[in-house]
Structure formats: C-alpha cells, structure tokens
C-alpha cells in the first residue's frame, strides 16, 4: 500500500504542492508501435544517403528533407541570423540527421543549424536520431566523433515533452537493410525510455537485407508511408510478427520485467517459454497459458538448469531449438559493503551472473533444444553495473559482470551469426523497486531526462528489438533503458 507521503503527493491538492516543489506531472510517453504523428525530417550533412535508403525500406518517405542545413525549398536554417519561422513548417515528428562523413569542427555548425529549430518544432514524444561514422581516423575526425556524443547527451537533457535523442554509430559500407530495424525502433514508441544513448549497428550476415519489407516496416492502419498515430496503434491487435515460428526463453518470467518481455515477444509472434522458480509456479503457468507458450519451473542457479531448459524446448517445441535466450531473472540483497556477508554476496552473484554463464555454455554446445545458429542472447544488466550504487556492491558486481560477459561472448559467437547484447535498465516501476522507501524512490524516479520511472514494457521492447531477425548487425552492445538517468556515468 502506498505510504502516507506518497498518497499525499498523488492526491489532488497534494499534486499542486508537489508541482510547486518541482515534482510536476511528468510527460506522457508515446509507446508501442506508433510512429510520430508529424513528418520525419531528414538532414544529410555530408552527402551520405544511407539514412534516406534505410527510411525508404521502412516505407518512410521523409518530409521536408534538409541538405547541408538548407531546406529543399531553399530556406537556410538558422545561419548566423534569426531562424526562419517556423523553420520546419509547424511541428515535426522526428529529425533524422545523417552526419556520416562529417569530420571537421567547422562542419559541426551544420548540425547546430538543423538541431536548433528542431528543439522548438519537435512534437511531444518526438525523436532526434543522429547517425555517425563508427570508425574515424585522425585527431580532428576523432574530436568530431566525440563531439557528436556530447551533443547527443546534451540534446537529450534539453528536449521537453517526452522527446528523446539517440546516436547510432555505423561502419562504412553498411547495407541500409541492416539499419532498418534500428531506425524503426528509434522512431516508434518502442524506444520511449531510451534517451541520450549511443550504440553501434554493424553489418549483418543474417537475414536482414533479404527480409521482405513487411517484416521491418511498422504497419499502421491509415498510415500513408510516413505518418502514424498513437490512437491508430491502440487496441492491441497483432499486425506484425517478426518472431513468428521462433522459440524465445525468458527467465524470471512470472512477474515484473520478465512477464512483460514474454508478453511483448509473444506479441511479436514468438512461442515463449516462461521460466521461474517453483514458488512462482501459479503466476508462471497463468502467463504461459495466456501467451499460448509453455511454463518451466526451474531455479536458474541449479547446475542442470541449461540442460533442463534444452530438454523442455526439445520435448515441447520440436527440434527447432531456441532463437532467443533472455536472461532476466535477478535479485537484490542490498547492504553497505561493510554489512555484506558471504551469503548475500554469493546469492546475488549466483542468480544474476554465474547462472547465465552456465546456462549459455549448455545451450551453445549444439545439443537438441539449444540455441540455434543465427540466434539471440540477451541479458539484463543495470545502470548500477555501469555507475555503481551505494549499498549494491554485490548487485553492481553481478550486473557489471553481465556486461563483461556480453562483450566477450559477442565476437566469439559472430561466426555462428548469434548476437549477444544487454539492456541496462535504470529505475523501472516493478515490485523490486516498490520496496524502496518512497522519498528515495521518488528521487530515483525523477532523476532522468524524462522525469519519471520507466515501465517494464520499455525494457521488454528494447529486448525484443535485439531479438528481431532483422537486428543481426547489432551485437556486443549495451543499451541503457533509463530515460537518460542523470546519476553516475
Ligand atoms: N526494476 C528495476 O528498476 C530494475 C533495474 C535494473 C535492472 N533490473 C533487472 O531486471 C530484472 C527483472 O527485474 P524485476 O524488477 O522485474 O524483478 P522482480 O523481482 O519483480 O522479478 C524477478 C523475477 O525473477 C525470478 N527469479 C529470481 N530468482 C530466480 C531464480 N533463481 N531462478 C529463476 N527465477 C528467479 C523471480 O521469481 C521473479 O519472478 C532483474 O535482473 C533485475 O536485476 C531491474
């Protein structure tokens, strides 16, 4: 039950007081498969056509394209004087900036010129997507590469109304098909709580470029290419099944983030195997039935957990094996290190880290019901594993360990076209975080660029982006789902 203070702040008069204390209502975030309502504006700053070709694969013909800071109608954006008003002819839904080939400090002016009017014109829950070179050479190009990161992080902190920005690093000669699942994720509401992040999309030897357009493009009734609306997306009707015919295993699926991962994977067409401890058997079975998947009562710390998961998949779901293995099960046993005994230490490291390594080892040895070539491994880390967190030395060790494991395993498994990635959630509203005392919880919840806690579905959507067959070029990455948490790194 909510505490006295929490109830006071969420009551009518309490809300007014909370507003005056800087605890105003956070913005509503566009979620799900909905695209922005306004046009997607494309700015190509140094002649790259990759973004345009990738957007075309998604059926998105950009409105008002910008070249070198000049709108196609000849309007120069910003320049040295006043901005033309309104620079983008009213609200825009997203600004995609293709900055590949931008290697000089002087060239950064072009980025400022297209971003500045967008800061005003971007609709609520709008998007800025920056595309930059992954590999650059020379001191000035390297400086510019890092400058783009600083700009991305700052824009995330300045945007309002639930709008976000993210930066994608791209190696030369990338097939536009390899970028499409990432652009689709970033533009849609699926990336609602991913803000101020940067990651790399590489070439994929997977199915991405061979996939039919319908496997990548959002299908929104009434949408004419580049427009979609949140309203049009409501109703939960399944229109899009990139994981159809594939088995996805989710540990810790009985509740919280794990239950949402299973639900979103099933929405995307997967046959889901829900794994959790026997004590959670009832909600586990209910969820598996609801999703038409199967339930496996299994403690992940058992030495035979990997073997049992493979045997379950082989017997219940035929010989296809596992497409996606999602290591979500996790626990906290928080104490200052000075009070952390060996038991609290080992429990957390066992569940959150050691179990994953053992299970992966068993599922990757080629046995029936194991992970197939072209499969996906996804782990849940935490911002605590990136920035550290007082009272969580055991938890931070386990989650940082997850990141190390993912980065080491990705190149090892590239030859089998298996991708390995992690999400690092910040503050997500679950039973785990409901245990945090209210004042502390409210501070964690608000201390990010979006001014609110994330929902389990935000983590689930990011994981399902990794799971997509079309995301074969995304591996060894750690994406924070934290609304650009302001604490730590
Ligand atoms: N909630 C957050 O803010 C947050 C932030 C960062 C990371 N995470 C991570 O996300 C994951 C899910 O978190 P949540 O908030 O949904 O937690 P939760 O406590 O609500 O759910 C965790 C689930 O894992 C299961 N589980 C625990 N130990 C297990 C074991 N040995 N074998 C099998 N299942 C086991 C539990 O029974 C439970 O169903 C965890 O790895 C957590 O560390 C959560």
Describe the structure.
With 489 residues, this protein is an alpha/beta fold. The protein folds into two domains: 27-200, NAD(P)-binding Rossmann-like Domain (Rossmann fold, 3-Layer(aba) Sandwich), CATH 3.40.50.720; 241-481, NAD(P)-binding Rossmann-like Domain (Rossmann fold), CATH 3.40.50. The protein contains 16 helices and 14 strands. The protein has helices spanning 4-10, 12-20, 50-57, 108-121, 139-158, 176-187, 230-233, 256-267, 281-290, 305-317, 342-363, 384-387, 393-413, 431-434, 438-446, 456-467; strands at residues 40-44, 63-67, 70-71, 92-98, 122-133, 164-170, 197-200, 247-251, 271-276, 294-297, 322-327, 371-380, 419-425, 478-481. The strands form two sheets. Strands 3-2-1-4-5-6-7 form a seven-stranded mixed β-sheet, sandwiched between helices. Helix 11 links the parallel strand 11 and strand 12. Helix 3 packs across helix 6 (176-187) and helix 11 packs parallel to helix 13 (393-413). It is globular, with a radius of gyration of 22 Å. The protein starts with a helix and ends in an 8-residue tail after the last strand. The relative contact order is 0.12. Residues 1-5 and 206-239 have low confidence and may be disordered. It binds nicotinamide-adenine-dinucleotide.
């Amino acid at each position: 039950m909510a505490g006295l203070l929490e109830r006071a702040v969420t009551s009518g008069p309490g809300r007014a007081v909370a507003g005056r204390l800087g605890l105003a209502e956070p913005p509503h975030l566009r979620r799900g498969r909905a695209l922005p309502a306004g046009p997607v504006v494309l700015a190509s700053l140094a002649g790259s056509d990759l973004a345009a070709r990738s957007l075309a694969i998604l059926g998105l013909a950009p409105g008002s394209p910008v070249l070198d800071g000049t709108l196609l109608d000849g309007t120069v954006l910003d320049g040295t004087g006043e901005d033309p008003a309104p620079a983008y002819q009213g609200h825009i839904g997203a600004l995609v900036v293709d900055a590949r080939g931008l290697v000089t400090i002087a060239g950064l002016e072009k980025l400022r010129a297209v971003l500045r009017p967008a800061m005003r014109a971007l609709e609520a829950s709008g998007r800025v997507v920056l595309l930059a070179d992954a590999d650059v050479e020379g001191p000035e190009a390297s400086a510019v590469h890092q400058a783009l990161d600083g700009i991305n992080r700052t824009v995330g902190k300045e945007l309002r109304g639930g709008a976000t920005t993210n930066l994608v690093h791209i190696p030369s000669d990338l097939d536009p098909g390899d970028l499409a699942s990432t652009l689709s994720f970033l533009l849609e509401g699926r990336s609602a709580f991913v803000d101020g992040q940067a990651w790399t999309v590489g070439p994929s030897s997977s199915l991405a470029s061979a996939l039919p357009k319908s496997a990548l493009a959002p299908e929104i009734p009434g949408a004419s290419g580049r427009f979609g609306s949140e309203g049009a997306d409501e109703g939960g009707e399944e229109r899009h099944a990139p994981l159809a015919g594939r088995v996805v295993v989710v540990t810790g699926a009985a509740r919280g983030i794990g239950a949402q991962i299973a639900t979103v994977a099933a929405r995307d067409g997967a046959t889901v195997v829900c794994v959790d401890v026997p004590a959670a058997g009832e909600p586990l079975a209910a969820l598996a039935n609801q999703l038409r998947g199967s339930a496996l009562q299994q403690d992940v710390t058992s030495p035979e957990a990997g073997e049992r998961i493979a045997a379950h998949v082989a017997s219940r779901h035929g010989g296809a094996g596992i497409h996606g293995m999602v290591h979500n099960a996790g626990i906290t046993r928080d104490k200052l290190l000075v009070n952390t005994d060996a038991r609290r230490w080992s429990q957390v490291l066992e569940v959150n880290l050691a179990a994953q390594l053992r299970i992966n080892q068993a599922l990757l040895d080629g046995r029936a019901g194991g992970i197939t070539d072209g499969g996906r491994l996804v782990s849940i880390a935490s911002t605590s594993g990136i920035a550290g967190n007082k009272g969580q030395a055991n938890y931070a060790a386990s989650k940082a360990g997850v990141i190390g494991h993912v980065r080491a395993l990705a190149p090892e498994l590239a030859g089998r076209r298996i991708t390995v990635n992690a999400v690092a959630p910040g503050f997500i509203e679950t039973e785990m975080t409901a245990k945090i005392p209210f004042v502390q919880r409210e501070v964690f919840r608000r201390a990010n660029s979006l001014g609110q806690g994330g929902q389990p579905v935000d983590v689930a959507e990011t994981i399902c982006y990794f799971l997509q067959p079309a995301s074969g070029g995304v591996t060894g990455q750690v994406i924070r789902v934290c609304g650009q948490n302001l604490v730590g790194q």
